């Protein structure tokens, strides 16, 4: 199972942590609402994707509850100059945001295809 990291609530402090961690391996930030059925479906798909990974896979994951950590969820997308969505995945590699997507696009098949 991929390792997870925690981020501080301050987006200005969190973004450099994401960039540094993605120098070690890909990092996916998964943002979701605990009250949204679409988020529940996307989270189920994301967990299925993660279950299919090898134990030594270098993927690092971060999960953000967009209600409990609103300033972080919105602050990250603002800093990255992308629209805030929920559910939403932000994929970092080599210090950069490589792709982001949201809602019904977030399936296990989609994650596998985007990763290559």
Structure description:
The longest helix is centred in the middle third of the chain and has 15 residues, at 37-51. β2, α2 and β3 (60-65) form a beta-alpha-beta unit. The protein has one domain (3-115): Glutaredoxin (3-Layer(aba) Sandwich), CATH 3.40.30.10. It has a five-stranded mixed sheet with strand order 1-3-2-4-5, with helices on both faces. The chain has helices at residues 11-21, 37-51, 70-79, 108-115, and strands at 3-4, 27-32, 60-65, 88-93, 96-102. The chain contains four helices and five strands; from the N terminus they run βαβαβαββα.
Which descriptors would you attach to this protein?
single chain; 116 residues; alpha/beta; Glutaredoxin; 4 helices
Fourth CATH level, the homologous superfamily: Glutaredoxin
Q: How many domain modules?
A: 1
Secondary-structure element order, N to C: EHEHEHEEH
Radius of gyration: 13 Å
Q: State the end-to-end CA separation.
A: 18 Å
Give the strand order of the largest sheet, numbering strands 1, 2, ... along the chain. Answer: 1-3-2-4-5
Short description:
The protein has 4 helices and 5 strands. The protein is an alpha/beta fold and 116 residues long.
SSE blueprint:
Blueprint: E1 3-4, H1 11-21, E2 27-32, H2 37-51, E3 60-65, H3 70-79, E4 88-93, E5 96-102, H4 108-115
Parallel strand pairs: 1-3, 2-3
Antiparallel strand pairs: 2-4, 4-5
């Amino acid at each position: 199972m991929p390792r997870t990291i925690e981020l501080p609530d301050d987006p200005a402090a969190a973004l450099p942590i994401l960039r540094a961690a993605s120098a070690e391996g890909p990092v996916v930030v998964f943002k979701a609402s605990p009250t949204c059925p679409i988020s529940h479906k996307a989270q189920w798909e994301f967990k299925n994707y993660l279950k299919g990974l090898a134990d030594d896979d270098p993927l690092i994951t971060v999960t953000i509850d967009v209600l409990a950590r609103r300033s972080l969820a919105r602050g990250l997308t603002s800093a990255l100059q992308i629209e805030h969505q929920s559910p939403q995945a932000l994929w970092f590699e080599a210090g950069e945001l490589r792709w982001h997507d949201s809602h019904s696009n977030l399936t296990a098949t989609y994650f596998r295809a985007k990763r290559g």
